[in-house]
């Protein structure tokens, strides 16, 4: 097999495998979110930035959303719904004043990492998206995951349940 084709297949396999169970028995070695079974994708901290946001009280957070190559291609093409395999990860931190430049707000302590995985068959009952919310690498309880789809679907259904727009 030619090296470029093999590299492409390996990249595709790694992108697909990050959100799905890793063994034939359907059991992942990573902690998975309740309800959806989503895990933290490998390498997500190296993904491209989609956009940033702040959240005022009560959370008082800075947030950055990154997307895997499948999601980023869909964003750039303006393609909705997102294709299967698209993944978005939101990283959140408490806001704090910069000690070097007090007019600036910088990330403080991390709060959550939240994941959306598009798989229209596996997650047909939740608009094609699976959700995961993690604190310190561990999934939070099922009650917190039950609100994910309801909120996304109620507020941004017309954008395939995705809040974050691609930053210009």
Automatic annotation (TrEMBL):
Presence of keyword Signal: yes
Residues spanning the signal sequence: 1-24
Domain Cytochrome P460 intervals: 41-164
Superkingdom of the source species: Bacteria
Protein keywords: Signal
Pfam families named in the record: Cytochrome_P460
Protein name stated in the entry: Cytochrome C oxidase subunit III
Organism field: Roseateles chitinivorans
